Write the structure tokens for this entry.
Amino acid sequence: MLTCSNIAVSKNNQLLFSNLGFTIFDGSVLIIKGRNGIGKTSLLKVIANLIPKCSGDIFYNAINIKLVLKEFYELLFYIGKTDILDEEQTVLKNLEFWGKLYDQEINILAAIKTFSLEPYIDTETYKLSQGYKQRLLLARLLLCNAKIWLLDEPFNSLDYQGKDILINLIKARCMQKGIVIITNHNQNIKIENSSEINLEDFCDK
Amino acid sequence: MINRNIQLNELSVYKVFISVLYRQLNIFVKNKALIISGIFLFISSISILKFLEGNNINTETFKIIEILLIIYSITLSSDLIIVEDYKKGLFEQFLLTGVLLEFFLLAKITASFIAYAMLYVPVMAVIDFLTDSYKIYDITYLVLIKILIIFNITINSVMSSSFLLSFKKRTSQILISIFINIPTIVISSLCYVSNNLFYSLLLISILLLTLPLSVLLSSYIIKISIEEDN
């Protein structure tokens, strides 16, 4: 169970949102909505403790994450918007690197097959279309054992097949009592047992 | 059970170290144009200096200029170590692996040292051969000094490259790079002037001092920059 209590976040000395609180139970999905620049990515980074918040606390199973930061990091997997892929490397080399980093090399083949990346394993990443780059980025989800997934606009650039794959993965994670938090700004995504938060409700402007 | 967990963690950290090291070496190979242009700049500057000054320049002065040129040419490609990965958001991902950021930086420094040493030490040895420096110095001593100089400059360039994340201006990086390289320049000059093994021990001591300092400081700057940039 992940609880955010009374969170306020600012950027460039400007308050983005305040008094935000929610609890996500194991096996559920939270979709964070709101217009561009409202602070969806910032909220994910605050939950991941990558950036500071103005006020509030985050608890995992009633323990303040600040007290167990290292253990909390091991439970987390964050996929951001920034392109962290090595463009000059092949798809396989990229996955091998992340597989080694998370000690999950055994799942590389499964990641390739799940996201239908087989025809491109020896292709340099810069040659891939935006959709396949996003698939490669998301294939890393299968290379970690994290319980909490923080996905920043994961459906961007994906075609219907890619979206279905991701939704099925999210469902599978939830069935394993995982927690998934997604940001989404314009796409109408339907996931079973998901709840939604519109950040505009917590924004002063 | 606890022992087993510790063993697994050690194995995982070792794997992380190796994979980051291997990746960094790959980055150098893929960006060979940038590295080669640095070496080309170094060789051409040294050659021009030698042709213009000929025998009017003494060996010690020549060696000091050589060190300054190495600092400059390594700084040219130092973005490949920290800045490029920072822009990609890779350090955020590294932080979330639960492995200390310092391990990642140590792996990157080791890989950079291997790459730069493999490229610059042979080039410097050839220059020594062409300028007859090997007649004055013991060859093993010369190679040792060169390896230590490259290691020191690599560590310092990682540190100055991290400062670029905070100050955002290239001028600041070059100024910091010159400033933090002063001990290396002075001690390595003494190594050449005195031809005494004692000074090479001083060079090692600077290395042992700057390595942890560089790793800890760079890690701190990266974490601060992640917070500030978001």
Notes: The CA atoms of residues 134 and 157 of chain A lie 7 Å apart. Chain A has a mean pLDDT of 87.
